[in-house]
Amino acid sequence: MNTAIILILGIPLIEIYLFIKIGAQIGALNTILLILITAVVGIWYAKFEGFNTLRSGMSQLVKNELPLYEIVSGAAIAFAALLLILPGFATDIVGILLIFPITRKLILKRYSKNYSQNTNKREKNYIEGEYEDIEDKDGK
């Protein structure tokens, strides 16, 4: 919960700081135009990548394989599009990193390794047993 509070407060503070610094360098109008351009181009490219991921997922389904990477990649593209819609330079940078296939694959590979190592460390506790259907002698 502390991480959520830090993110909720920290991200807008970082964005405001970057707006002030970049706006002072290139001007207010150019800053606004840059934010709008990154949003429009980012959404267009997210749509393009989303269709590519959908096409790849369909080809996996035709091969009767589970399109696990395509599902995770599609979620990452949707999150990247959301970050690109939000006004700000820090969110745009993270969104751009997630939207390009090369960096998205590197990021997902890193976190999937961490996730698989954590799941392998956990012990799997199973309770084995047998069951038997018992019917009443009266037929109920």
Topology of helices and strands:
Layout: H1 2-26, H2 28-62, H3 68-85, H4 89-99, H5 101-121
Helix pairs in contact: 1-2, 2-3, 2-4, 3-4
Task: Describe the fold and architecture.
This protein is mainly α and 140 residues long. The chain has one domain (2-120). The chain has helices spanning 2-26, 28-62, 68-85, 89-99, 101-121. Helix 1 (2-26) crosses helix 2 and helix 2 (28-62) runs parallel beside helix 4 (89-99). It starts with a helix and ends in a 19-residue tail after the last helix. The relative contact order is 0.10. The mean pLDDT is 85.
Low-confidence stretches: none
- The tally of beta strands, per DSSP, is 0
Domain module count: 1
Helix content: over 70%
Distance between the termini: 53 Å
Supply the number of helical segments. Answer: 5
Derived structural class: mainly alpha
Mean pLDDT: 85
Q: β content, as a range?
A: under 5%
Radius of gyration: 24 Å
String of helices and strands: HHHHH
Oligomer: single chain
Structure in a nutshell:
By secondary structure, the chain is mainly alpha-helical. The chain has helices at 2-26, 28-62, 68-85, 89-99, 101-121.
Question: Notable features of this structure?
Answer:
single chain; about 140 residues; mainly alpha
